Each structure stands twice: as C-alpha cells, then as structure tokens.
C-alpha cells in the first residue's frame, strides 16, 4: 500500500489503486468483525454467569428478596447485547469487499478532513494500521448528511464544513 501524509491534508493518506483499496476494506471489515465478536463473547459469558448465579441462588427467600430477579434481568440485558452483536456481524458479512464505492453509501469507507468512517454498523471506534476509524450505522446523522456525496464534496454538518477526501 502507498501512503502519503500531506502537510496540507494530514488525513489524506490514501493513494491506492482499486486492488489495494479492496484489500484495505477487507482488513477493516475483519477488524470490525473481531470487535463485534469480542463484544458478543463478553456478553455471552456475563449472560451465562448471571443465569448460573440465579440458578445457584434458588428461589427468592421472601417476597422482598429481589436478588434472583436482578440476576435474571442482568442476564436478559446481556442476551440483548449478544443478539445485537450477532446482528452487527451478519450486517458486516453482507458488505462486498470487491465493490468500491464512488459515493457515500452503505459499505463505503469515507475519509474526511476531520475523521475516517466506515459506513456499516454502529460498532464504534476501531483501529487499523494506527488509524482510527468510526464504524457507523447508515442511520446516524453524519451519514444522512453525507449520503450520496462524492470525493471532493463538502458537507456542512452541525456548523462545520467537512470535506470528503476519499470514498471507496
């Protein structure tokens, strides 16, 4: 991969051909998948531990004893997080690595003068090759403001001008 850190545009580091962009996007998807799997695994463990603790505790000791109910509620909360993580993983599986985008849409990598984004699923901040990306859902306001824009376009978002340096 060829990287260029320009003094005028410090975030404009992508000088890649299509094959390199596809490979980079593939690696970014895998970083996001690993992040989502870590969340799912943690949620699954806490969910199972809560259920085990509730079972070991047994039935409430009296009508004011809510400890078992709290354990079960905690387990249900982490079961929901686990399910959401699995849905995020499924969404990441749907993204075609070989398809490069010329405009901001689902599955595109967007490099701006402010930040780097991956429009996929809201799994948050991920790091690849020392660069921080924000994996965001196509439902967040920043995406909605940029949707359909191309490299070189400028979007005004919350009083800030954001220039799109690259989209793929």
Task: Pick out its properties.
3 helices, alpha+beta, 43% helix, 6 strands, 168 residues, 6-stranded mixed β-sheet
Question: Structural class of the helix and strand makeup?
Answer: alpha+beta
- Quaternary arrangement of the chains shown? single chain
Low-confidence parts:
1-13
Strand elements, count: 6
State the end-to-end CA separation. Answer: 15 Å
Major β-sheet profile: 6 strands, mixed
Note the total helix count. Answer: 3
Give a verbal description of the structure.
- The protein has one domain.
- β3 (124-128) and β4 (131-136) form a beta hairpin.
- The two termini are 15 Å apart.
- The chain is elongated and about 65 Å long.
- It is 43% helix and 18% strand.
- The protein is of the alpha+beta class and 168 residues long.
- The protein has a six-stranded mixed beta sheet with strand order 3-4-2-1-6-5.
TL;DR?
Helices cover 43% and strands 18% of the residues.
In terms of topology, how is this protein built?
Elements lengths: L17 H40 L9 H27 L15 E4 L3 E4 L4 E5 L2 E6 L4 H6 L7 E4 L2 E8 L1
Parallel strand pairs: 2-4
Antiparallel strand pairs: 1-2, 1-6, 3-4, 5-6
Helix pairs in contact: 1-2
């Amino acid at each position: 991969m060829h990287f260029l850190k320009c003094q005028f545009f410090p975030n404009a580091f992508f000088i890649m051909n299509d094959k390199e962009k596809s490979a980079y996007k593939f690696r970014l998807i895998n970083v996001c998948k690993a992040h989502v799997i870590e969340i799912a695994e943690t949620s699954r463990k806490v969910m199972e531990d809560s259920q085990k603790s509730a079972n070991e505790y047994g039935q409430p000791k009296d009508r004011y004893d809510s400890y078992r109910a709290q354990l079960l509620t905690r387990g249900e909360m982490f079961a929901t997080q686990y399910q959401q993580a699995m849905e995020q993983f499924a969404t990441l599986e749907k993204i075609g690595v070989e398809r490069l985008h010329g405009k901001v849409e689902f599955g595109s990598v967007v490099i701006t003068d402010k930040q780097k984004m991956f429009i996929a699923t809201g799994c948050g901040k991920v790091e690849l090759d020392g660069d921080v990306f924000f994996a965001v859902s196509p439902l967040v306001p920043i995406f909605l403001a940029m949707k359909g824009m191309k490299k070189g376009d400028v979007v005004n978002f919350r009083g800030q001008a954001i220039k799109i340096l690259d989209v793929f």
